[in-house]
Amino acid sequence: MLCEEIDMKLYIIANRLPVKVAGTNGKFVFSRSEGGLATGLDSLQTSYEKHWIGWPGICTNEEKDQQEINEKLQEMNFHPVFLSEKQIENYYEGYSNSTIWPLCHYFYAYTLYKNCFWQSYQQVNRLFCEEICRLIRPGDKVWIQDYQLMLLPGMLRKIYPELSIGYFHHIPFPSYELFRILPERAEILKGLLGADFIAFHTHDYMRHFISAVERVLHLDFKLDEVQINNRMVRVEALPMGINYESYHQASENKEVHQAIERTRKLFGEHKLILSVDRLDYSKGILHRLRGFATFLEHHAEYHGKVTLAMVIVPSRDHVGSYAELKTKIDEEIGSINGRYSTMNWTPVCYFYHGFSLEELTAMYYVADIALVTPLRDGMNLVAKEYVATKCDNPGVLILSEMAGAAVELTDAIQINPNDTEQIENAICQALEMPEEEQKQRLQRMQNILSVQTVNKWAADFVNELNATCMKNDMLRKK
Ligand code: G6P
Predict the structure, then answer these.
(1) C-beta contacts of 249-258 below 8 A and 24+ residues apart
(2) Cα 443 to the chain's mean position, in Å?
(3) What sign has the CA pseudo-torsion 211, 217, 220, 225?
(4) Average of pLDDT values for 90-115?
(5) pLDDT class of 7 with cuts at 50, 70, 90
(6) Any idea what DSSP says for residue 57?
(7) pLDDT grade for 26, boundaries at 50, 70 and 90
(8) Measured from the CB, is residue 315 less than 6 Å from ligand 1?
(9) What family does the database annotate (predicted)?
(10) Rounded to the nearest 10 degrees, what angle do helices 320-340 and 285-298 cross at?
(11) pLDDT in the model for residue 44
(12) Are 251 and 245 in contact (CB under 8 A)?
């Protein structure tokens, strides 16, 4: 049960606020992001008043602009932390996305170390800490999200020994052998252990974290708990879900229905394979394209009959490795289309931009196959959204065993994304799978997703955090 005090607040701390601000000189546009986390936490039923603290997605030094943005965001219980262009370069593009991100996704060779990255990461975590300290009151709870803010729990703990602090890690936590490479491994782990409750998408990530704590900090876990001075830190695997009903009922919405008609017209009689990702080397986009090219090479009978719709949402393109990847993807798609296109068929339909939620769900609904083949992925919500949107329509999910979602979605065709031949064979298997089997597999996966929703995930997290904090209260009183 959640605590009943009505005037207490739950502060959700994330690198980005669930709202994007754009514009200049007093003319600002505020658009609500559709991210899973924001919508999930929106529907979380709790007696706590929910507040968010995060970066509003805009760099401005003008005090007047900041004030105006601040006032507007406050109305929605959003509290901005303004970051300079230098901080975005060194904390966000630098330590978060050029050091931690590649390391946690097993891309060791992409990991960059610069002292200015680490300095900035500490500085920005401190900025977040100051903003929290300015706002919180006794009894409030703090829930920190993800790898951009791993020092924050420890910083807060030093100031507030009794504050309830939770942390969720949305990306993989790598094996100790990889994590130990990080020069600041001890500082990062100590930072995380400032929380009362720490959760991951899978047991494996949790196991890796425990092993890193034991070997780097020489602390001993008793099952899922470790004692630090007079308090316990508890860890758990809590896989994040989606807003199942909104996807499952999407096709009943008028706009989605119209988009479904448009999508059907666009792809005609072709079998549609869909792939949707943020631009990221961890998503295995090049391997996927090579798998599709091999499929075309060996299966001339499908030429003119199968189209791959590839949606790539631009992301972090100021980071060198992302910009290079974009060039390689463009080349690979050009090469496939150049080789196989005919006057009335283009094998890869490439979209380098996002789609509205209505258009995206229409594509999920129409697509015969979803090809989700990350080389590493903390969870992968696209796989879950595709399954949920299908209702009782047929469709096949091909899913990488390297995605966190593979633990729950065992009725997908699971493949090792490094093996081009497995991708090719999975496409054939999916194209030939009887409709009845497609529906049965989807149904079994839908049964899981309809229970493990994002709302349940968030409620479970808050409940577990509360339970751990109650235990710690008792320990302190002993
Ligand atoms: C991943 C991370 C999130 C992040 C998201 C978008 O899913 O786990 O923390 O918010 O990517 O990344 P961006 O860098 O665009 O904020």
Answers:
(1) 250/358, 250/361, 250/364, 250/365, 250/389, 251/361, 251/365, 251/389, 251/391, 253/358, 255/358, 256/358, 256/361, 256/362, 256/365
(2) 24
(3) negative
(4) 97
(5) confident
(6) S
(7) confident
(8) yes
(9) Belongs to the glycosyltransferase 20 family.
(10) 10
(11) 74
(12) no
**How distant, in Å, are the alpha carbons of 141, 234, 436, 458 from that of 196?**
11, 6, 47, 16
State which amino acid sits at residue 202: T
Tell me the CA–centroid distance for residue 464 and ligand 1, in Å. Answer: 24
What's the half-sphere exposure (Cβ side, CA atoms, 13 Å) at 2?
Answer: 20
Question: Quick one: which atom of ligand 1 is closest to the CA of 147?
Answer: 9
Give the neighbor-by-neighbor strand order of the sheet with 164-169: 78-80, 49-55, 9-16, 141-145, 164-169, 197-200, 231-237, 225-228, 221-222
| Pair of tokens at residue 462 | 């808050």
Q: What does the alpha-carbon distance between residue 478 and residue 472 come to, in Å, rounded to a whole number?
A: 10
Q: Is 146 in the pocket of ligand 1 (CB under 6 A)?
A: yes
Tokens 């796989």: give the residue: 383
What secondary structure letter does DSSP report for 410?
Answer: T
Ligand 1, from 315, 381, 454: best to mutate by most atoms within 8 Å of Cβ?
315
Residue 95 DSSP one-character state: I
The answer to whether the CB of 249 falls within 8 A of the CB of 361 is: no
Report residue 315 CA to chain centroid gap. 13
Amino acid at residue number 306: V
DSSP structural state of residue 109: G
Share of the chain above pLDDT 70, in %: 97
* Partners of 398 in the β-ladder: 371, 413
Structure tokens belonging to residue 322 = 């992302």
Ligand 1 pocket: which of 93, 167, 170 to mutate (most atoms within 8 A of CB): 170
Alpha carbon distance 342, 334 (integer Å): 14
Strands of 56-96, DSSP E: 78-80
Cα 144 to ligand 1 centre (Å): 14
pTM: 0.96
Phi then psi dihedrals of residue 235, to 5 deg: -120, 155
